Amino acid sequence: MLFKALLFATAAVAAPANVLSTVGVVPPTNSVKILGVSAIGTGCPVGHAFVTVDATGTIFDVAFDEYYVQVGPGQSPSDARKNCRVSINLQFPAGYALSIIETRFQGYASLAEGQTGVCRAGYTFAGDNSQEVVFQKNLVAPYEDNYNLLAGVGVESFTKCGGTTAVLNVNSEVRINPITSSKKGIMTIDSFDGNVHLIFKTNWLRC
């Protein structure tokens, strides 16, 4: 399973009243860098999350091989929920604040009558948990198909002015309710072709 992120410094909007800004502000091309990526959680335990950052420092892949949940005969209640926190250490130009304005998860679920699948994703910049933004997809059985969790433009959390680095924590989880069932159910964070894409588009404010 593959989890991929792309960063684009291509969009801008008006700022809140307490932040100095210029509409249409875009920082220099290729000015955003990923300094490091780490993953931890029951869906991405040590040895089961494989991180790659490309030569430009703007694209990273985290490949998972255990990010799925199951219920049904022979499954324990703990098999019904898994989570993964991916932390991305970002570097950007002085004098700007950074916001992530779009995320997308793709996955697959096979749910029997009476089961509900949930994919939840939230992000927050380290040190400012008050601005966590959460998105959730609920799947009601019977369901057997791919699914998408898309967070639309306009829900934003900006980094604080005055810095040039920030750690973005992306907290995701997948679960099936109820946690015990006589029927088999499975839900993954992946796509039909084996790729999960979490895409970040960046929005900028002049501080």
UniProtKB/TrEMBL annotation:
Return the InterPro entries for the record.
Answer: DUF4360 (IPR025649)
For this UniProt entry, which residues form the secretion signal? 1-21
Q: Which UniProt keywords apply?
A: Signal
Can you tell me where the transmembrane regions are?
Answer: none
The protein depicted here goes by the name Secreted protein
Q: Which organism is it from?
A: Podospora didyma
Lineage runs: Eukaryota, Fungi, Dikarya, Ascomycota, Pezizomycotina
